[in-house]
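As the next step, I selected for study a record pairing a protein sequence with its backbone structure tokens, which the following lines show:
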Amino acid sequence: MARRTADFAGSWYPAKASECEKIIEEFSRISVPCPQGALGGIVPHAGWFYSGAIACNVIQCLSKGPSPDTMILFGRHLHPSSSNYLMKEGSWATPFGDLEIDEGLGEKLSSEFAFRIETANRCEPDNTIELQLPFIKYFFPDSNILPIGVPPSPASLKIGERVVELAESLGRKIMLLGSTDLTHYGANYGFNPKGSGKSAVEWVKKENDKRLVDLILHMDPVGVIQESLQSHNACCSGAAAAAMAAAQRLGGRRAERLVYSTSYDVRPDHSFVGYVGVVFLP
């Protein structure tokens, strides 16, 4: 079976299983409230140094319930007119071993929507999804995955809803993850409407990121896409919105924020990024 390599192992996160396990154990000791019955969530995708603890704690929270047959992963940095992306067969390497792609579900989804099909040998490096995979393999060692890239477009919501329906038709138990970071602020990102310093950090936290997070918590996927395109406060709003639409189709009625922070909180700098961890609940 063709195996996709881990492009960011050894740089954005450790390449060795023992080192990954040590860091995951450290992340897991952080006290984060974990509601029961979560159907999926939203996770950030910076290097583990910056946002790994948030992603880890969301995925660990999901692991408190029954393990899914397949984890549906929505990600990728795309613009509104971008293609959809799908890896529908093979496996994806992690330091803990390979994660198998749900080929049956991937085949059904690709028969209904237009995708750029990625393979183990024909793919682009994608941190939005890869950064989650060691956590998934660690907490859900027997689950498969289906990696999907969707743009910030209303059509992405239909993909989110339909993948749930197709999973149900196949008898699959699934969980959902949407991967996005929030505001990318500062000269490094060409976005600094509030200058620099602590006032800029406070604006990002209490206004720009808050508007986007509030829309996630209100389970408003259309609003998430519209807000991100207007305010530059999510880099993968299509992925977040598709995950939200999928969660609603799966029975999700509300969302709960587990943790929010920025890279500035980890390492203060004039350029920084916001991160949030959210779970979807019935």
